[in-house]
Amino acid sequence: MVDMNRVTNSAESATPANELFNHQWQIYQKVLKHNYMGHQEIYQIWREFIDRFYQQPFKLLDLGCGDACFTSQFLRDSNIALYQGIDLSAAALEIAKTNLARIPGQQVLIQGDLFELVPQLAGQHFDLVFASFVLHHLSLEQKDYTIGQIFHLLEPGGVFLLIDAVHRADESREAYIQRYLNNVRQDWLELTPEDISEVDRHMSNYDFPETQETWRSMAQKHGFIKSECLYADPLETTELWCFYR
After folding, report:
1. Is 70 inside a domain boundary?
2. Residue 61 lies in a domain
3. Which of 55, 83, 156, 238 gets the highest tally of CB atoms within 10 A of its CB?
4. CA–CA separation, 4 and 137 (whole Å)
5. What pairs with residue 242 in β-bridges?
6. pLDDT in tens, 58-90
7. What is the CATH number of the domain that holds 222?
8. How many angstroms separate the most distant Cα atoms in the chain?
9. Is the pLDDT at 5 greater than 60, yes or no?
């Protein structure tokens, strides 16, 4: 599913940008409050991994950071030295500034399209690159290119952590979306019919999930030496992957 705070992906909508942001922001807050997408479980595992892997100060690049709501919560009291976030939504980044004030280290936020901006970061290096519910918006070719760029941005021994939509090996994109939406209609009880229609529209237009094997193959192709799934949700729709450089 699309992460609701990345609202400017719907720029072609006739709805004014600020009104669109407010509507999607309200939906996203409901999703977070009721843990419909499993953020609490996923980010707890994410933080435990960081605590184990980064005993010394580390630099993090967050692709599609949105408002950094969960990221900032789970980075409190961490060893982070630099947080650099990229997002398409200027409105979300304004909120991120407030949220990130809670974490240690330096914060840098950049507004723009990650597919265009990541290659421009050449020469910078990070210990950890993180992407949460954002790469599935890209085409397969764009995903492949971006993973290659991520590899070169990582320090030797660095890690790429990916939270994203994953469909079954024998499942089409359309079947995945319908299966996901059936769960939304059945279990996301605090969403209004209008909210659900917006989720449906986003997924139908912008969600392009891949299989486990596709993610793994792309990472291996670009030089990552190991892939590890740290979390898979019970519905087989979302996974947390770790790719080691």
Report:
1. yes
2. yes
3. 83
4. 12
5. 161, 228
6. 999 999 999 998 899 999 999 999 999 999 989
7. 3.40.50.150
8. 48
9. no
Q: Helix, strand or coil for residue 154?
A: strand
Q: Is residue 237 part of a domain?
A: yes
Tell me how far CA of residue 73 lies from CA of 105, 157, 200, in angstroms. Answer: 14, 26, 29
Decide if pLDDT at 18 tops 80. Answer: no
What's the mean pLDDT when you consider all of the chain? 90
Q: What is the SS3 string spanning 92-116?
A: HHHHHHHHHCCCCCEEEEEECCHHH
Residue with tokens 């990541």: 118
**Residue with structure tokens 């936020």?**
109
Domain containing residue 150: 7-244
Instruction: Report the pLDDT averaged over residues 148-159.
Output: 97
Number of structural domains in the chain: 1
Pairing of β 226-232 and β 106-111: unpaired
* Residue 2 domain flag: no
Query: Does the structure show a pLDDT above 80 at 23?
Result: no
Closest CA to 62 of 106, 128, 10: 128
pLDDT band at 195 (very low <50, low <70, confident <90, very high): very high
Which residues, 6 or more positions from 88, have their beta carbon under 8 angstroms from its beta carbon? 6, 8, 9, 64, 111, 112, 113, 114
How many angstroms separate the Cα of 123 from the Cα of each of 103, 104, 115, 128, 153?
25, 24, 17, 15, 7
Read off the DSSP letter of residue 137: G
